[in-house]
Amino acid sequence: MTFQEQITEGIPSVLPQPKPYETNINHAPKRKEILSEDEKKLALRNALRYFEPKHHAELIPEFKEELEKYGRIYMYRLRPDYRMYARPISEYPGKSEQAKAIMLMIQNNLDYAVAQHPHELITYGGNGAVFSNWAQYRLTMKYLSEMTEEQTLVMYSGHPMGLFPSHKEAPRVVVTNGMMIPNYSRPDDWEKFNALGVTQYGQMTAGSYMYIGPQGIVHGTTITVLNGFRKIKTNPSGGLFVTSGLGGMSGAQPKAGTIAGCVTVCAEVNPKITRIRHEQGWIHEIVEDITLLVARVRKALKNKEIVSIAYLGNIVDVWERFDEEGLYIDLGSDQTSLHNPWAGGYYPTGFTFEESNEMMANNPEQFKIEVQKTLRRHAAAINKHTAKGTYFFDYGNAFLLEASRAGADVMAANGIDFKYPSYVQDIMGPMCFDYGFGPFRWVCTSGNPEDLAKTDKIACDVLEEMMKNSPSEIQQQMADNIQWIKGAQKNKLVVGSQARILYADAEGRTKIAEAFNQAIARDEIGYVVLGRDHHDVSGTDSPYRETSNIYDGSRFTSDMAIQNVIGDSFRGATWVSIHNGGGVGWGEVVNGGFGMVLDGSKEASRRLESMLFWDVNNGISRRSWARNEGAIFAIKRAMETQPLLKVTIPNLVDDALLNN
Predict the structure, then answer these.
(1) 224, 548, 567, 619 - which has most CB atoms within 10 Å?
(2) Which domain holds residue 330?
(3) What's CA 33's distance to the chain center, in Å?
């Protein structure tokens, strides 16, 4: 069968032969045993819904074995035989170009070069799933190949509920992931209901079909590292940045450190993902011996090298040994997947990677004890360095949250706040999000690198022209992004699809998108998919990350994220998504995203102007109402440019009156 025939086939009427378990692939760890015997039968019934009754007798023992062996029913047998990657849009079957673009984006999320656990349909973060099983993938692709522009595909946590009549102006796909009744959003609830096959953890851009590989966070990390050094008034040259995590999004850290111009040490316990990042050029060197690491870092600092070094081992050992050796760390952070601490997101020290995985699956209570012991050691070692002047920031991965739950010394004197700020509180919030700057991204659906180079130039030209008249409050943001886009090709950021990201405000996003649409209309480039990370101005309500610099008490509400997706859906988005869970954990965040296909039409111009303006200014208005100074400036400026925008501005109270 051709690729197109396999896509349109969906779930085959004749079952494919079982596939061998490929040990060279980076697989998800075995999930904990959590289902009762009756619930295991329910999980099997749920999985068998996708298949004709004539196949049930054959599939039951196979699915039962998967459930027992891996803690989930992935339906490995249904993995397609074709190579998984983002093909040019012209190679996809279908009646709708918008639907073809979505197929492209789904396959990019599952590309072996992009996905963390591709055979388990997990893109990043240990549990950030595009689908829960391969039947869902096959059925979704079939629906997309049949879709017209008078239909909308409804996605329930990885399951394609079906194609429903709608209209041309409606989103082609609406995605929800993990939308639980609030009292059922504990970590074990995810384990249970995911094992039953009735919900999934879409992370942020994984279940939204908008992940573009580590590049998606490289830019944000680069800005964070640059501004971290600016904050401590230190030049990155000859400076040391220490962090951990190379899987998924965290793999961006060493590349960002290199672009910023410092020495970066990033610890990782997983040998496979470490080698992958090295092969992809995201890290320069791998060191497995802590003594050799100390010597290598001393040499790099002395020579002011710009180098990224992966330490294949536990990050706690790095912090502790560097303290013993008197190695000064300028910037420190952590980006292990601590939103998922008991299922592979963080590993205890003192055990091999294999021993930890075995303990996680077979003795989860002991694993939790060891993880929490390690978190206490981790925090204690960081405290020793910060006492010497190290600037440590929480990178929104729930490190401080889980460390506090483990009893680590991470709380401020008031017993309420953490002693270390999140990077959003100190850097990204006041410098970027409050002014509307966030991770705007695009994908060239032709798959042609020349199209990406053309869009880079278009974006750079737009930003340089805008900067001439930009107010002083956002000159630094503009300059950083122009520098970034000029170096994008040189830094070889593409993994998977021909994609790019830069931080832009509503004006910048709209002008860049319109310039793309005009270039498409002139046949200079192919169709472009617009999107963004959920880690943005408006899309996410996350009290310990995206909205951690909201100080009016509303950071634990999620009105903004819900309003964002509703507003995007009727202002022209091609697809929208809303998730429970993300980079800081299940039940800890609600986040929404979108995708928009530009085809060079007047309709696309109208849609992008309407939707992008809302998508950013929704968040600015909320931040303004929280009394964030930069956001008050930004929303007033937005009202000056758009007379139909009328936003309530807060009245400020004299603190002296409250303190009387």
Answers:
(1) 619
(2) 214-410
(3) 27
User: 158-183: per-residue pLDDT in tens?
Assistant: 999 999 999 999 999 999 999 999 99
Q: Does residue 226 share a domain with residue 134? A: no
Using an 8 Å Cβ cutoff, are 96 and 147 in contact? yes
Cα separation, 583 vs 563, in Å, equals 20
Residue 411 backbone zone (phi > 0: left; psi -120 to 50: alpha; other: beta): beta
CATH of the domain at 265: 3.40.50.10730
Dist. CA 473–CA 475, nearest whole Å: 6
Average pLDDT of the chain is 94
Residues 555 and 629 in one domain: yes
Q: What are phi and psi of 113, to 5 degrees?
A: -80, -15
Q: How far apart are CA 449 and CA 443, in angstroms?
A: 11
Evaluate whether 108 touches 211 at the Cβ level (below 8 Å). yes
Report which secondary-structure segment, H or E, holds 129.
strand 128-129
Q: Which residues are annotated as a binding site?
A: 125-126, 203, 268, 395, 583
Q: Is 262 helix (H, G, I), strand (E, B) or coil?
A: coil
181 & 227 share domain: no
Please, is 645 exposed, middle or buried when counting C-beta atoms within 10 Å of its C-beta (0-12, 13-18, 19+)? middle
The set of residues, in sequence order, having a beta carbon less than 8 Å from that of 491 and lying 6+ positions away, is 255, 258, 259
Mean pLDDT, residues 121-137 taken together: 94
Alpha-carbon separation of residue 259 from 129, 264, 305, 492, 518 (angstroms): 30, 11, 12, 11, 32
Residue 418 located in a structural domain: no
Q: Which of 385, 414, 420 is nearest to 401 (CA)?
A: 420
Question: What does the alpha-carbon distance between residue 104 and residue 109 come to, in Å, rounded to a whole number?
Answer: 9
Q: Which single residue is written with the structure tokens 């039962």? A: 64
Place of tokens 């709380």: 411
- Write out the two tokens for 121: 């349909």
Specify the pLDDT at position 19. 93
Using one digit for the tens of pLDDT, what is the confidence trace for 562-596?
A: 999 999 999 999 999 999 988 788 899 999 999 99
Question: Edge-to-edge strands of the sheet including 391-392?
Answer: 285-287, 307-312, 263-268, 240-244, 331-332, 391-392
Residue finishing a domain among 383, 410, 437: 410
Q: Kind and range of the H or E element at 8? A: helix 3-9
* Pairing verdict, β 590-598 and 540-541: antiparallel
* Domain end residue (candidates: 381, 410, 439): 410
